[in-house]
Amino acid sequence: MAYLGRGLDRGNYLKLDDLQPQFDGSTTTFNLTSGGQAFYPGSSYSLLVSLAGVIQEPESAFTIDQNQIIFATPPGGTESFFCLVLGVPLAVGIPAEGSVTSNIISNSSVTFEKLDPNARGVGIQSGGVTIAGAGVTQLNFVGTGNTFVYNASTKTVDIAIQGGGVGAGGTWNANGVGVYTGRSVGVNTTTVIGTAHSEGALQVNGNIAIVEGALLTHKTIDGQVNIPANKNGLLIGPVSVGTAATIDVAPGSVLVIV
Question: What tens digit of pLDDT does each residue of 39-79 get?
């Protein structure tokens, strides 16, 4: 006849040593042994215990403490006994290194406190010099126009600062870039920045230098000079006006060449 019931895949099924010779009608605690050696069940539910042909209910008729069985009522001296172990507990091994994948670990099972302190957050460097060590958990880009884009393929963050014409060391890498400080200031630009037609605004469309108090300018005008209405203009002469250059002086304005 074929085997019926649960598959024998939970470890060995054992019959423990007979305790009947120790029964005296008053003792309730007995040592469990297998082949004369102490036996430690996983729990009372892993044992099938019979007294006088009656199956005993775990945790009600008997309990287990280490390798001892404790009966609720002392077995009589003539009561028969047998005990079957319904599978020896199997030890849970330690997973091999690198065998546990992320899909096995449940979400939120690894907390921030369990992380290596040196691996938490990010570190920030400027020119290879650390300005904020590991542990930084947030970067906050302030100011209008400051944006960043995350590149998932390279796992990098590209940061864009508004007015990206600013180069390293305070230089300008585009001729159309100026500095705004409440008033328009353009230095060595090919075009006028902003309106820049009011006092307090500095525009240099061309070359100008102040050396030891001396103002140095080009002697040749190759572009357009525009003196807006109600303004005074000054040129240091003599000057030459190129063939494609123009000098426009609005009505009511004055251009002086000194």
Answer: 998 889 999 999 999 999 999 999 999 999 999 999 999 99
117: which DSSP letter?
Answer: G
The 10s digit of each residue's pLDDT in 201-244 is: 555 556 677 777 787 787 888 877 888 888 888 888 788 888 87
How far apart are the C-alpha atoms of 137 and 150, rounded to whole Å? 16
Long-range contact pairs involving 200-207 (C-beta distance under 8 Å, separation at least 24): none
Give the strand pairing for 14-15 and 81-85.
Answer: antiparallel
CB 41 within 8 A of CB 47: yes
221 touches 239 (CB < 8 A): yes
Residues with Cβ within 8 Å of 146's Cβ and at least 6 positions away in sequence, in order, are 159, 160, 161, 162
Amino acid at residue number 1: M
Residue type at 119?
Answer: A
**Which residues is 234 bridged to in the sheet?**
256
Comparing C-alpha atoms, which of 26, 23, 59, 30 is closest to residue 44?
59
Instruction: Provide the pairing of β-strand 214-217 with 208-211.
Output: antiparallel
pTM of structure? 0.35
String of DSSP letters for 228-251: -TT-EEEE-SS-EE-TT-EEEE-T
Question: Is residue 199 scored above 60 in pLDDT?
Answer: no
In whole angstroms, give the CA distance from residue 14 to residue 37.
13
